[in-house]
Write a structure and sequence with these properties.
Layout (H helix, E strand, L loop, with lengths): L7 H9 L4 H9 L3 H9 L6 H18 L1 H9 L3 H14 L7 H4 L1 H7 L6 E8 L5 E5 L7 E5 L4 H8 L8 E11 L13 E13 L11 E5 L4 E6 L4 E6 L6 E4 L4 E3 L2 E7 L6 E7 L3 E3 L4 E3 L1 E7 L2 E8 L12
Parallel strand pairs: 3-5
Antiparallel strand pairs: 1-2, 1-4, 2-3, 4-5, 6-7, 6-16, 7-8, 8-9, 10-11, 11-12, 12-15, 13-14, 15-16
């Protein structure tokens, strides 16, 4: 059909809907705009199998008519029509490095929600399949992050040479939130998608820059070490000078032994174990002359460390560095 293969299953689905699929394709190839729009809107009438096949037909059509024309016709559809077309195009893409953004940047730009980018600060957690953003302004909510800059993931790997699963960096970015993103399904425990369009600043997370409330941040010297306990991130993280990367443990709520707060956890994958004792005593850091709220004793795989600790500031949205 004008050089475009239309699978039998797709033709049957179209016939069931009294839709002249091959006729619309033939006209669309010759840039009949009415037929083209009707073919795009047929994206609303497909299931998982025919949706992928329909998407493959649309991608072939895109290649024939060009990105400029395809984007122009697409722009005339309402939001529901654009969403259905986007989902079909996503499903039709072959497995591999090519994305719709690379294949047809104008079509991609047309499909993206037309929101002005807003500034965000928070924690970025890289994952090969679903990266996550924790927004400073919305503690407790998780956003599925889409890196449209193409550089956040690369910088994440550069900054954290040996990241553990779920490790975060501090990220100031620009972008927008949306409830829809092509064929991607939003996991149940995520609030929305966040589309990241510009990097403002990326840093290794520390107690001065993170804005997601933690339960305790402990530090010590000789040798230098630090530990974060965070129910919001679901992690107890430990770093020691001379040890590549961080060791991590699932967050476990504290227990009380007399007047001492105890956090204890085991990483069953690595066999590492950690126990953190928090004493309600003022603690001075001799290296910086800082005074902290708590005295801390930490045991990591039997090795003992001592230092000081602080809880997240009570002020809900303190300025970075405070």
């Amino acid at each position: 059909m004008s050089g475009i293969l239309v699978p039998v299953e797709l033709l049957k689905a179209a016939s069931h809907n009294a839709f002249d699929y091959t006729g619309k394709v033939a006209k669309a190839v010759h840039k009949d705009e009415q037929a083209f729009q009707e073919l795009l809107l047929f994206s609303n009438n497909v299931d998982s199998l025919t949706g992928k096949q329909h998407g493959q037909v649309l991608l072939s059509l895109l290649e024939k008519v060009g990105d400029v024309y395809f984007a122009r016709v697409l722009a005339n559809l309402d939001e529901d029509g654009q969403h259905a077309t986007w989902k079909a195009l996503d499903e039709g893409l072959p497995a591999g490095p090519d994305t719709l953004n690379k294949l047809a940047p104008l079509t991609w730009k047309t499909l993206l929600p037309q929101h002005p980018p807003a500034p965000f600060s928070g924690l970025y957690i890289f994952n090969e399949k679903t990266s996550t953003y924790l927004d400073c302004a919305a503690p407790g909510e998780r956003y599925l992050a889409i890196d449209e800059t193409g550089a956040i993931n690369r910088n994440f790997k550069r900054m954290l040479r040996y990241p553990y699963p779920g490790q975060a960096i501090y990220a100031e970015v620009k972008g927008f939130k949306t409830d829809f993103f092509g064929a991607m399904t939003l996991p149940d425990n995520y609030t929305a998608f966040i589309i990241l369009t510009e990097i403002v600043n990326l840093e290794v997370k520390n107690f001065r820059n993170t804005c997601i409330p933690y339960d305790l941040w402990a530090l010590g010297n000789e040798p230098f070490w630090q530990a974060e306990i965070s129910a919001n991130e679901g992690v107890i993280e430990f770093q020691e000078l001379g040890f590549d990367g961080s060791r991590f443990f699932p967050f476990v709520p504290s227990t009380m032994e007399d007047s001492t707060t105890i956090y204890a956890s085991i990483n069953h994958d690595t066999g590492d174990n950690i126990r953190i004792s928090v004493f309600s005593e003022k603690c001075g850091d001799t290296m910086s002359d800082s005074v902290y709220q708590y005295k801390v004793a930490l045991t990591m795989n039997g090795k003992r460390f001592t230092g000081c600790g602080r809880t997240f500031p009570v002020v809900a949205m303190r300025k970075k560095g405070e």
